[in-house]
Amino acid sequence: MKPLFIGATLRDCGKTSVCLGLMQLLQERGLNPGYCKPVGQHYVRYQDKNIDEDGVLMHQVFHIKDEPYYLSPIAIERGFTKRFIDNPDVRPLEEQILSVHYKLRQWHPMLIYEGTGHAGVGSCFGLSNARVAQLLGAKVVIVTEGGIGRPLDEIAVSLALFADYEVEVVGAILNKILPEKYDKICETAAKGLRLLGTELVGAMPYEPALSEFTVGQVAEEFGYKVFCGSESLNNRINHVIIAAMEPQHVFQHIEDRTLVIIPGDRVDNILITILLLSRYGEKTGGMILTSGFEPHPTIEPLLQASQIPVLLSTDDTFTVSARMKDLGFKIRPYETDKIIRLHQIVRDYVDTDRILDALKE
């Protein structure tokens, strides 16, 4: 069976989500799938090696016995690209990927490779997604966000590069399709993809719960100080607002699971936030107080009693809010509810049989 390479049109389109769902389905079928992200741009230190964070996720979720290195052989460390451009020899890198590939083939009859970004990412050091897929003899499924015009245009660009490397694209998966537009988008996108020479092999609906993150993840990501509410850092967030307006305008914006960004000296809006979030019970929402201002001592007891997690940032309100824009947190191994849901979504909305049949050809 040919390896399956999961590519994308942009970063954070849902490659890892698809891989998580497929791995579970294939394990159910007894196929003992292997996983690898040959080129990783976002690595962490894991078991004394620099391993891509998606490789770490898969290693922990599926309790994979392969050494972490085999899930993430090349980590793009600081200065990596400059060193390559100064000495442009891609052969050692290709040999490294192939060595891992041959080992994985011995242990797993079915392999899933996860790409990095769009088809051209990695071209600056000779390892674009298209070249890696060619090197592995893999067939490709492209993941893109739900829609028609823009996703089709982006898929067309990826198809052209994969074609240049003579890599077969099995089809595309649309992700995060709004439920009210689901049927229309699926029908039109399928026709559009056929015009481009490929097929729609999956259409995954948008589920807000999969995009939720925790207050603790925000604190960890940006190094914010936890002022109080540490017992509630696992509060899930699906709505972010900036409460820099006059107090009377704050009321209409705060709902359940809201993260409120507030200038730290706005006592009025801090008090209103406590009041509004408390309407939804305990363990909901959170605050980020900006500009280096700690809460006034007179309201500290109220914050402590509310159990709302409060983070402190020395940055101004604009900087803090700008960081939150389009922020997409990776799924963590302990988020079993999300992982189980991805299993169900891929099972119900991705034509896995069609993909597997294509890998047999």
List keywords for this structure.
361 residues; alpha/beta; 6-stranded parallel sheet; 5-stranded mixed sheet; 15 helices
What does this structure look like?
This protein is of the alpha/beta class and 361 residues long. Helix content is 42%, strand content 20%. It contains 15 helices and 17 strands. The chain has helices at residues 15-28, 53-61, 80-86, 91-107, 129-136, 149-164, 182-196, 208-211, 215-222, 247-250, 267-278, 300-306, 317-324, 336-349, 352-360; strands at residues 4-8, 33-36, 39-40, 43-46, 49-52, 74-75, 110-114, 139-145, 169-177, 200-205, 213-214, 225-228, 236-237, 239-242, 258-263, 286-290, 310-312. The strands form five sheets. A six-stranded parallel β-sheet has the order 2-7-1-8-9-10, sandwiched between helices. Strand 8, helix 6 and strand 9 form a beta-alpha-beta unit. Helix 1 crosses helix 14 (336-349), helix 5 (129-136) packs across helix 6 and helix 6 packs parallel to helix 7 (182-196). The longest helix is centred in the first third of the chain and has 17 residues, at 91-107. It is globular and about 70 Å long. The model has no long low-confidence stretch (mean pLDDT 93).
Q: What is the tally of beta strands?
A: 17
Mean pLDDT: 93
| Shape category | globular
Biggest β-sheet description: 6 strands, parallel
Q: Please give the alpha-carbon distance between the first and last residues.
A: 8 Å
- Estimate the helix proportion, in percent: 40-55%
Q: What fraction of the residues are assigned to beta strands by DSSP?
A: 15-25%
* Strand order of the biggest β-sheet: 2-7-1-8-9-10
As a whole number of angstroms, the C-alpha radius of gyration is 23 Å
Q: Specify the structural class.
A: alpha/beta
Continuous helix count: 15
Regions with pLDDT < 50 over 5+ consecutive residues?
A: none
